[in-house]
Every structure is written in structure tokens, then in C-alpha cells.
């Protein structure tokens, strides 16, 4: 191995990688991509298709079915044995396909949310997916970026990096480009290197990539660790627990039924075993867990189409119980299209058409605005680049016929302190008529406090309390209209030198520029929707309290009696104070990202499920702490996207509310599918139990129950999972995450509906049994149970009656019904299948009529009950 990169100079490093400071050519990239592969960590060992297939058999059900197959063979019923095995294999194939499909859809979601990197290639700056980075690439890092490969720093501009994922050290590390002349330097001390998986918290740098994929320090760790298993969501876990308990109960009942059959009715051992097996097959909800996974995965697909990219299945579930949405203001609730409005300088407020530069103070204000900002605007094409706040300043310049670029060329920037939302200031250094001058723009409260003088037509005067008050009054007036106000000041230095934060003081105040950022129209509706659904919206912003409150009022977030609190006031509150006032506060203004964690914590102490938005590096901890961390797809930093569980592709508040509605709908659909599956199974259990107690022949063969559980029941269950979200979902309070999905109401419905279906099934059985034909009786019972469950699928689509629901809103449910009927008809009428499924060779048209009539009965009863309940609801 050659010498470590930290010992090399930038030039030597470039040579060692055979790269150049302008980056690689496309040809070199292609050949290196061939050689090194994609820049990805290998995902541990992925399960092979065969493994997935084999796992489908690792199930209690299978053991029971094999017992059933053996018993069938013993009772000289070889066809049954064959059918059972065929069904088992079919089931395993279906399970495998579903698993692979769900995995694929999760992978495509992962791809949508994977980070990008800015690189120089052939001298041009391009943004590429992190997977496409190759050794030798020149990566441009800036605050908010995630480091996606290991590299040697070539040029350093105060780069600060958080390497906690590698070193455990949570303090940021200052970087350098100087070579280190030492052996065996620990990772944390390799100050001229950056490592994949770390976060840029400050400054910027150009970096030569020296290692990608598994050849990074992170890759070495990942190789050591046992790679992640798919973790289950709380819902999946609780259903697994439920299934395990159910299995034990079923075994106990089976033993009881077996004993009863032998001792009470004096049935033979084989026949008694048949009863026990039928019961077990009837009771076990085979399709349940895969259907839950499918519905969750379909939910994420749908949300992605509506611009909410979910990074974790768990989030789908939590979304449904969100009760507080904390949202940034600028860009999320507002349009982030700033237009300049009133301007204040030298004691007078200019607005609208009387904007005209009449004196030196106003001219200096404009100069400061254009010099201390980076945005540019192309007047011909009308396209602008940069921070919207700064774009507004450039637009203001245009109003006066001043071009930002000529100003900037006249007074080149000699130093700068970048804007950050903690300091709320930005400063630049210029030569103005031979005097090194610092222009600072930022939040008025911060600037005014540090201003010693005020610039007027007559020159600098002292900043007296009265003058301060006058400026504060003007600011208040502008802010009350919902305008965003930016303050400007300058200070002079003795000589040109690098700026430090210490230089942002002893200012001469110049004036104010206000701008308007209108609310997003759809946000008003979304806030109202959320409110109807019992969800509180809270505005969190770096902007001024009065501006924020005015906008919050326009959006319907801030109502009479509500309070707005500033970050400063929040700092002075104890947790106990905050808990008392929390319900009243709907606007937090002038907050720093650290405040967001406190707000999340406070709501979580009240047992609320909280969603929090964020875009910056410092927002990451709050996003992680929130139940649903939401990052901005367009303006968000890679770091915030990494910490979030949901990404808004359109940065839009309304998308959060839509996702919450979808979360509720997914949960409701899963609940309905569970109701459908379990009530059908319960009916089967009741029938078998009843028959064994009454000494009747076994009403169903295992093949019958398998046919229903795996085929005719799965289709309506999935269709129920596809039920579209309904308006009514917003009339409910958020779900309490602590109540189990199988609550008492649901269990009651499962029992009641199961009983209804069991009654008609046994009536059908008796009708067939009249002539003492056990096969006809069993055929009648099987067909009635199948059909009744197919009809029951419509009952489980929602709480409303079919008439209110409108059948056509979910075509899948109709298709599922008819597919089920066709399958049943095949079994009943196709000669070969008839034998395989042990169906009676002959039955009359009357028999057929009885089956259909009886099967329809439970659904008629359930619909009448729903109608009556619906009338009751309509009245109140
Ligand atoms: N480019 C900038 N240069 C100087 N000061 C700025 C700049 N952008 C914003 N500010 C000042 O800093 C304050 C906070 O800005 P920040 O971007 O943190 O929050 P915001 O965009 O106003 O609100 P939100 O947190 O809702 O996105 C602003 O109110 C403004 O006074
Ligand atoms: Ca912001």
C-alpha cells in the first residue's frame, strides 16, 4: 500500500489519484465506475428468492396442514393430500412474490430519498446521486451536506465537520488542507481528511475522493456489523404477538375438541383428528400478516405520488395518529416568493410608486442591500438564483435601475461572514472610497441592539433611545401587515483583514427594507382540514414575532386568545411554565433550531404524537426526536433529509396534512381488513365447534378452508386495503397510539358478524344433511361460507352502509367479489376439480338457490344495522 493520503500535499494526492483540480473526464468516470462499482455500502447478505420461498414454510400453519395431509392419506383420501400440498406450494409462491414486491417498493423509496453530491467533472459543476461518485472525483462540500465518500481536502474554507457516526465525538471538527507529517494518525486527528457518513456543519471545501463504497472507513465498520434485518412496525409486531397467542388458544381448543369427539360421541380417532385439524385450519388467519405488509407498502406508494416520500414503514402508522404539526413558516406555509415593499431610511417611509432615491442614506441602503447579498436576477429572462430574501433585494435594485452585478464589480467582496439562522445576520467587507467597510444585514432586533449611530442626511448621529423607539415603531407597523423586515447597517475597519464574529458590532444603522411573502393558498385549507381532524398546527419561524403572527392569522393558525412566543422568551421559561402555556402558544418566532427540540419534548410530555419540519443542519436533532421528522425535498440540506422519516418533494405544508389523512386511511383499511379476515375465520370456528358438540359430521374438509382462507378471502382483503381515503377521516380525533388495533368494538364486531355467518352456514349444512348425505351437507356448508364471506367483503369496506359508500368508489372490491365467485363456480362445476375438492357430484338448482339466499342474509342484516346507525348519526 502506498502512503496514507493525510501525509500527501493536495498536489501529491491529485497525482496519486491521477485526477486534476478540474475533475475527471466522462471517460475516466466510466472506467473507474467499472473498476470500483457504485459508491454504496453492501446491504449485508440479501435473502435469495429460494430462501424467501423456503421461509414461507416456516409456519405453524404448515405443520398443521402436513398433519392434515397425512391424516387424509391415512383415510385413503389421496386427492386431498395432493390438493393440500398444491395449495401449500401455491401459497408459498404467492407469499414469495409479495415479499419481493414489497421489498422492491421499499428500495425504490430508498432511492428517492438517497443523498446527492456536488462534483466537478471536466471543469463543470454537476449534482449527481451519491452512488455515482468514484475515486478521483472532486467533491464540493458546503454546510448542510452529507459527506458521501472518504476524501482528502484540497481547498479549505473554515470547514467544520461532525464525525460522530465514526468517532462518537459529537463536537464539530475543524478541518485544514495542510499535510500531516506523522505515522499512525487516528481518524479523529486526520484533520485534512473527510469521511463518508459525516455531516458538514459549517464552511465549505473542495475534496478529492480517495475511497468509495466499502473502501471507506464507514464501509469497514459496516462490514464488521451484522447488517440490518428488516424491522417490523409496531402494528406488525402486535399482530405477530396476537397470532402467537391465537395459535396457543387454538391448540388448546383443538385438543379439547379431539377429546370431546372421542369420548362424548364415540367417534373414531381418525375422524376426531379430522375435526381438530379442520378447526385449526379454520382458525388460523394465514393471509393476515402479508396483507398488512401489502397495505402498508401500497400506502407508501400512494403517498409518494402525492409528494410525501416515506423513508420507513413505521412512519405510515405514526402518521395516522399525529396530533400536532409543527411547521416552518418560510417556504412551507408561505410561497417563499419575496417581493420588495416599503423602504425606510433617514426618517421617511417610501412605498409604492414614490420609491425614488433622493438622498445619500437611501443610496447607501441600496448599496448595502446589493453588496451584502449573493442572489442574482436575469432581467431579460426573469429568472433569479439565490435566497428569495436576497432576490427581493436585487429586485428592489432593479426598480431603481441599478444592476447588482455592476455594483459588485465596482466594490469587490474582500471578506464575508455567511448568514446562519442562529445569528440571523450576514456581513460582507468592501472598499468604499478607500475605507474598508463592513455591510451587515439581518434581523432588526439583533442589528438595532448593536447600533451606536444612526445615518441621516446630515451624517452620523448618536443612536438615542428615542431614535431606537422610532425605528422599532416603524418596524412594528410593517410587521403587523405581515411584511418581513430586514435591517441594514455598516461599520468601518482600520484595514482589510479577515472578518470575525467580533466585527459585527458598533454599527451605524442605515435603514429597513420590507418584503412580502404571501401565504400558500392551499395552506389555508390544509390548516382548516387539520383542525377539523383534531390536529393542532404550530408555526415555528426565524422571522419576527409580529410578522409571524400576522401571517399565522391569515392562515388560520393564530386565533383570538392564542399567544406568540419568541425564542428569547422561551429561554426564560422553565419546562413547568412551558407546560402550562403550551396549549395557548401557536406561534414561536425568532427561534433557533435548538428551540425546536424543546417544543417537541413539551408536546410529547403531554402524550401527543408530534410532526416537526426542518431544513437546516441544526434541525436534524429535532427531526430525529419528533415522531414524524419532516424534511424539505427542494430546499432541505442532505443532513436534514437523512434525519427525517418523511421528505416533502414539494416543500409544501398541505402535503403533510395529506400524508396524515393517508396515514389514517391506511390504518383504517388495515383495521377493516383484519375485521373481514377474522370474522370469517370466527364463523368457521363456530361451525366446527358446534358440529363437534352436536355429534354432526365434520362440516368442512381442510381443503375447503384452505381454499377460502388463501384464495377467496385474500382478494377482498386486499381490495379493502385499497379503499380510497374518505373525507370522513377528518371528522375524527387523532387515534390514541396506545389503544390496540383489536379494541373491544372490533372484537365485538368480529364475534357478532362471525356468529351471523356461522348460523347461515349451519342452516345450509342442515338442509344438505336432511337426506343423510354428509358430502352434500359439507358442500352446502362450504359454498355458503365462501359466498357469505365474499358478500361480507362489502360490509368491511367502511363504517357506512353500502348505499352511502357507493360501491363503485373501489372497483377492486367488485373485481375481488366476482373473482371469488368464479373460483367457487370452478370448484363446484368443473368435473376434475369437483373430485379434488371433495364436492358433492350432484346438487339441485334449489340447493344452489338456498346457498345464495342464505349467504346473502348476514350482509342484509349488517347493512340494515348500519343504515339504522347511520340515521342515528345523521340526526345528531
Ligand atoms: N439572507 C439573509 N441575510 C441576512 N439576514 C437574513 C437572511 N435571511 C433571513 N435573514 C434574517 O434572519 C431571520 C431568520 O431567518 P431564517 O431563515 O432563520 O428563518 P425564516 O426563513 O424567516 O423562517 P422559517 O424558520 O419559517 O423558515 C429573518 O427573519 C431575517 O431577519
Ligand atoms: Ca428558514
Short structural summary:
The chain is α+β, with helices and mostly antiparallel strands.
List its salient traits:
876 residues, alpha+beta, Calcium-transporting ATPase, cytoplasmic transduction domain A, Calcium-transporting ATPase, transmembrane domain, Rossmann fold, nine-stranded mixed β-sheet, eight-stranded mixed β-sheet, 50% helix, binds adenosine-5'-triphosphate, binds calcium ion
Please describe what this structure looks like.
The protein is α+β, with helices and mostly antiparallel strands and 876 residues long. The protein has four domains: 3-44 and 117-218, Calcium-transporting ATPase, cytoplasmic transduction domain A (Distorted Sandwich), CATH 2.70.150; 246-303 and 664-724 and 740-875, Calcium-transporting ATPase, transmembrane domain; 308-334 and 519-651, Rossmann fold; 339-354 and 363-377 and 388-516, 3-Layer(aba) Sandwich (Calcium-transporting ATPase, cytoplasmic domain N). α28 (774-795) runs parallel beside α32. The longest helix is centred in the last third of the chain and has 42 residues, at 653-694. Mean pLDDT is 88; it is low at 226-230. The structure holds adenosine-5'-triphosphate (ATP) and calcium ion.
